[in-house]
Structures are given as structure tokens and as C-alpha cells.
Amino acid sequence: MKRFLIPAIISLLLFFSSLLLFSCDSENIESPSRTTLSINNMSSYDLYDVEYASVEFGVVISGRDATMDVTSGTRYVFFSLLINNQLLRCRTVNVLTVTEDLSNEITFTDNTLVIEMTGEYSSNLRNVFETMGMDTTFTINNMSDYTIYSVEYSSTIFGTIISGRDSTFGIVATSNNVFFNIQSPDGMIRCRTELITTLERTANTYTITNNTVITEVVSGNTGTLQNIYNNLHRPNKPAVPELLASDQAIRVSWAVVDEAASYRVFYSTNPSPPSTPDITTTDTTVFITGLTNDIVYYIWIQAVNINGASELSDITQAVPTNNFTVNTMETFLNALNSINSASDGDYTITVTGSFSSLPVIFESGTSKRIAIIGNNVSQTINNDGATDLITISSGIILEIGNNITLNGNNKNANVVNVQAGGTFIMNNGSTVTGAQRTNSTSNPLNSSGVMSAGTFTMNGGTITGNDNTNRRYQGGGYFGYEGGGVRIVSGTFTMNGGIISNNQAFYGGGVSISNSTFILNDGNISENSAYDGGGVTINNSTFSMYDGVINNNNADYWGGGVDIVNSTFNMRGGVIRNNTADSGGGISNEGNVIMDNGIIINNITSGSGGGINCSGNFTMNGGEIINNFSNTAYNAQRGGGGVFLNNGTFLMNNGLISGNFTTSRGGGVMVTNSGFFHKTGGIIDALNSTSVDERGRVAFVFISASNLRRRETAAGATVNLNSSVAGSAGGWE
Predict the structure, then answer these.
(1) Distances from the Cα of 151 to the Cαs of 105, 143, 159, 180, 253, in angstroms?
(2) For residue 144, which of 230, 234, 261, 203 has the smallest C-alpha distance?
(3) Which of the chain's termini has less CB crowding within 10 Å, N or C?
(4) Residue 624 is part of which domain span?
(5) How many domains does the chain have?
(6) CA distance 227 to 232
(7) By the 8 A CB rule, do 128 and 114 touch?
(8) DSSP label of 583
(9) Which of 466, 459, 458 is nearest to 433 (CA)?
(10) 203 and 113 in one domain?
(11) What is the pLDDT of residues 627-682, one digit of tens each?
(12) pLDDT at 311 over 50
């Protein structure tokens, strides 16, 4: 075995030795030469149809390489990018030099500079890929102060773009103008910009500002957007204004001018306009004041906005005045028409002769004051129509005085009718008379001297001889008319002086107050007569009396002086005296009476309550109820020379009840039925009396025939009387 193994091993060693010697010699043998190019794609994108020197490398995907034999030289590397499913041919920006017999290489990265051959767009590989993949868009930014309408670029409609907004659309790249409309007072005006060039596959942007230069398509006017807009929005020439002359003033009114922010008013006493405006305003009505009456003034208007001023309006003129002299119906009606058509102000109508006139209406104003006066002798305006002689509308203040008489002439109408918002003032020397209802069935309206739903102030003068007593049949019974002298409905009456006398009505012979306020500061309401409320009737109202006299009035039934129904009467002064009625000679109270001061004296009733007949609430904090007389037949539940309380409340905190007399019970105070009387102060003295002793000289309370309370001796300030408490605990004897 060993003899055969050793020779075999030696043979193998000799074989490997020969191979080693051959390998060493082969390194010294020259190989044939090759020129190669390796394209390494280290970019983020696949490269298609790669070519160098007409050698096709095919597709070199991202992260791979490709090596081909090429010929030496200096050339570009060409390739395609797949963008939006289309191959876009590109090349390197720089040429590549390939050296003969060497292994050459080029590496593509995202930053390799390349050029897109169609549009010759050059950038790094990433930018070219992203840019060529973009759409072609156009954004129009409106950074001007104006809205632009029907915006268009190269047949692409962008619509309306308001200030501060933008609009973006895909377009075909081109060079064109941006067209749009701007609003003018006369409609839309088409405009265009300068030429705007847009690029393919680019987000193109164009910004319009106030300073963008544009051209009006039709007129060819060129300027900044702001200037063009301003010129288009300069106001038009105003129409001729309407002029209304008044006392030392002219009211100027004109129609609104489109696009005007303000107006200039020019006026002069000669027909040439002044160089500068006299008034600047944002209103369309102004009052030119401080003028001289009876001189011609010429007037012009100019409209203004931030864009400029209009032409002056055509010239017009007016003559201010405030005095009218009348002595016939024609001149009176002419004065009325002039005042009604004039602006607010003060006007005087001087009546120099008596005449008859058709009824007149002083039409509404804001603050128009009119005085109707006579001259040195008394003058009369008589009603020659079938309706109210004078109607005072809202905003009108009408005064009469100084020898002027308004005579209703017995025409079944009011002499003066003051509507809501109107004001009527009577001063010394004025008279309202002659309202008389003669037909109660055909004319259902009241006929009063003054009928007011506004404000009536009587400073002086006389309201007399007005008759509203006729009744009309309605709803199964007779309905009476109110307020012979004065009727106030939802208004205010303030009497500071004057006389209301010898008037008649069914309710409120002198004055009727309904849903209103009556303030009596001074004056005299006397010699009036009615069924209820000979002097005054108040219903759902407030009557405050501070001074003045209500005397010698007569009521057939309730309230010779004052009749109070669901109302409040605050008596803080004045005198109610010598009035007569069946019940409540001085006052009949079915509401609330608060007496702080004043005197109720010498009033007479043929029934109960010579001074006051009360079935409401009466609080006496002061004043005097003295010398009143209840002249009634003896009745257990009638009487009350001073105060008769029936189902009401009488709280006496202060004041004096003295010298009152009754032929029945309760010389000072009579309380019956469920009436409540509580005296905590004041004096009811023993000068009060009854025709028969032991009937309550001071006070008498009738609860029932077997439950009577009376006081015969004076109840001084410290004596409390309480009708609900019997015996001495209640102050009774």
C-alpha cells in the first residue's frame, strides 16, 4: 500500500506546482483594451431611455447602475423622466468626457443639473421633476379697496373678486390682459390691465392694488385703479333744491345724490355763487338761519365725496318772512298756506279786521310756533264751516292773545281741536266761545270750546259761552257729551290763569279730563253747570291743584265743584267754594283724593257731603274743610256737612274740619255702610253742627240701626277717632 501511495502524492505536488508557475507567468501577458461608461442612479427618480453617444443604457432605476461599452468623447447624457404618465426628454447641463480604454462613470443625484429639452427649463433633477409635474395656474389677488366683477384672463372666467380676496384657475399659459368691471353710478365699466405673461406648469400670480395701472376699455382713459374708480364715482349734479322760507331762515331740501358723502350749500344775496360753501352737511335738509327778512336769497347745492365734487345745482331763490296781516278769509287762508308750506319757525298772524272763515288746519311740523293776535281793538274770527274752526296738528304750537276771539258760531263743532302732538296756548286778551251742540242725533261728536289730545296751556284769556249739553240715544240709553269749555282726552292741560266760565255739558261743564293730566296753578273755573261735575270732571286721570279757584259751579247730581271717577286728585292749594250739587257740593270722589293744603268752603249739597261726598279713598294731610252745608232731609244714612264717607276710606292726618252743618247726621264727618274713618291728627272742632242735637256734631258713624257711634265734642289734634273701634277706645262718646 505504501509503495503505491507515495508516488501518487509526489505526482499531485508536481501538478500544483506547474499550475502556480503558469499563473505567475500569465500576469505578464497583455489583455485587449476596453472603453466603458457606468451610469450610477443615486437620485430619487427612475431614468428612462438613458443614452450616451448613441449607446442605449435602457432604464436605470433609482439606486441602480448600468455599464456599457462606449466610444470616447465629450457628449451629454440624455434620459427621460416619467411625469404624469408621459416621458419628458432631458439631458445633463454639463457634457461628460469619456476617456479611451478606461472604465468611466457618472453618478446622478437629486442635485444633478439637468435641462428639460422641450421648454429648456434648467435646474437640478429634483426641481425639474417637481416643476414639470405641476399644473399651469393663475391666481389673481385683489388687494385693492374695491370689488372687481366679471374678472377674465385669456377666456378663463374668474368671476367676482371682492377686496382682500383672491381667485385661482387653471389656464393655458399665454400673454394677455386681465379684464374686469368696476361699479359706477351709471353701471359697470369694463377695464383692463397691462399685458400679463404666464408660464406653463407654473403657479402664476398677479396682484391688483389701488395703484395698478388700468385702462377703461370704451373710453380709453388710463390711470391707477384708485383714480379711475374715483373719477367714475364723482357725484352727479344735484337737482334744484326745494326752498321753504320762514322767519329769518330758509329750509333747503334736495334729493339724495348717488355716491355723495356730503353736500355743500352756497347762498348769497346776488345771483353769483360764493367761492366757498356756507354750509357742509351729510343731511339732505338744512336750515339757513340768521337771514334778513324780506330780502331775496339765491341758493345752490353741490354734492361731494372722496372722489371730488359735482357741478353746482341750478340757481333758485327764496324770501324769508314771518309776519302776515289778515282781515278777510282770503288773506287768512293765504297766510295759512304759506305757513303750512314753510319750514319750522315762529310766525305771527295779525288780525286787523273781523271776518268769517272756513275751517283751517295748521299742518304737522316739528316745532312750528304760530301766534294769532288782534290789533288795538278786539277782532273775531267766526266759523263759517261745518267742522272745527281751527285744527292744530302734531308739531304745531298755536298761541292766541291780544284782542282775538275765536267764535265757533254754534256750528256743532269744536272751536279749537288740538291733535296729539299739537300745542295750544291761550294768553291774556284771547277768548274762545260759541261751541254749541244743536243736533245730537246727526252729529255724534262733541262740541267743546277747546278739544285737546295734545297739550293745552291756558295762561290767561277766557273760555265762555260753550254748550255741550245735548244728549244722544245710544245702546238703549242716553249718552251725554263732555266738557263744555274744555275737553282733554289723552292729553295735558295746564291752567296758569284765565277764566273758564258759563259753559255747559252733560259731564264736566267747565272742564272734562279723560285719560289725561290736569294741573291747576291759577285761574278761575266758575259759573259752569253739568249733570255731573259742574266745574270739573276727571275720569281715569290725574288732577293736581296748586292754586286757583273753582267756585259757583253747579251739578244736577254728583260733584258741584269737582267730580272724580277712577282718578287721583291732589289738592295742594287753591279754593273750592260756593259750588252746589245733589251729592258732593264741593267734591264727589269715586277715586283717590289727597289733600295737603287748600280750602273747601261754603259748598252746598241737597244730599250728602256738603264739602266732600266720598266712596273712594280720601287722605287729608292739611288744608281746611269749612262752612259747608248738607241740606238733606233727615235720613239715618245721609248727612255729612263737611265729609260724607260711604264705602270708602278717610284717613285724617292733619288739617281742619270746622263750621260745617247738616240737617241730618254728622256735622263734620258722616260715615256709613262699610266706610272706614281713622283720624290720627288734625282738628274737627265743635263749630261743626247738626240741626238736631245728639246726631254727631263732630262725627257720626252708622254701622247699623243698633250700632251707632258719635262724637259731639271737639276732636283736637291728639284725639284719635277710629270708626271700626267702638266706645272710647275708638274716640266715641
Answers:
(1) 55, 14, 5, 4, 41
(2) 230
(3) N
(4) 589-733
(5) 4
(6) 9
(7) yes
(8) B
(9) 466
(10) no
(11) 999 998 877 678 999 999 998 999 999 999 999 999 999 999 999 988 999 999 99
(12) yes
